[in-house]
């Protein structure tokens, strides 16, 4: 009897999957590979049921002889182990971002004369509806809020991209790239105070108030499913912070990062060029404790941001604060630096990890941008935030276009750099 292999990443079995299973029967005995959570989140959306549930769901299906785990987006490992005569898949992957996976399957199969069977992809109204329901479920507060904690368990390093509007949220949500034999995407979104303020043409001094920040959060949430980390600046007055924690939690935000500064907040990247005052350890701990007491769910995270390195107070001060903030209940710490190299960040993390193996560490490599994610992970860092790159790429592009129109008294010269009208009007999916 010949053997057939298919890989499924789905949470729901619909007619499309049943069609593939049925077609497979004509070729031989079917083994289904179920993508592990670690692999699935690089390739597709976050699962709404557990790996075990997905595995058992496949075992119950008629026409499925064996079920195995597939722990990489690439089929190579499982194919080399099973050496199937056939792989079966929907034909949609010929053109979408999965093409690299397909190309690789063909290459591996050819080494023992295996064949790829492609069946027409099922895109009925019912299938589309199921897809949409799964997508919308992920956007709901109860599902979204806990996802940052889930990702911390699944990812060697969680990658967050700055967003400040619906359109930037769509970019963070949908950008997926081919990386060697794998696919990859961002895990989370960072709503930066700098970029949220900049988008409104305002300075980053806590002038854009929480009501306005919530408006941005709402715009982002409307079009996305990924978890949100909010830049909460100083967190404001303790008496106000406790209310804001509840509001953010109810909205489905996963984490707020508050920084240990007081008085008129200025952007950290100014460093000591402007007057910035660090909060006392005791007062900042009080703020963390009050926030933790106010929150209702287990999911929400309050992350304490340490500004000691920004203010050139040294690693010993940063460490003392980190331990105090964790003892006060912080669910994570963010250590910030404006050096061109990651040396002081690494020195801090290595020292911190000697005593604390588990508290998540967050970093924002804006000035030390050469550092690779795997280097950060090797120093015990759990979350990397790309805090302002979308804003900084969009602004010069818009400025250049404006100048070109003025200079040439028409839009033609600018047009070559622009997205086509067709692409822009079809960019946004309609309900
Ligand atoms: C932000 O993105 O607003 C931040 C990070 O707080 S930084 O601008 O580097 O201070
Ligand atoms: Mg900020």
TrEMBL record:
Domain of life the protein comes from: Bacteria
Cytidyltransferase-like domain span: 11-96
Keyword Plastid: no
GO molecular function: phosphoenolpyruvate mutase activity
Transmembrane segments annotated in the record for this chain: none
EC numbers for this chain: 5.4.2.9
Keywords: Isomerase, Pyruvate
Family: Belongs to the isocitrate lyase/PEP mutase superfamily. PEP mutase family.
Protein name: phosphoenolpyruvate mutase
Organism: Longicatena caecimuris
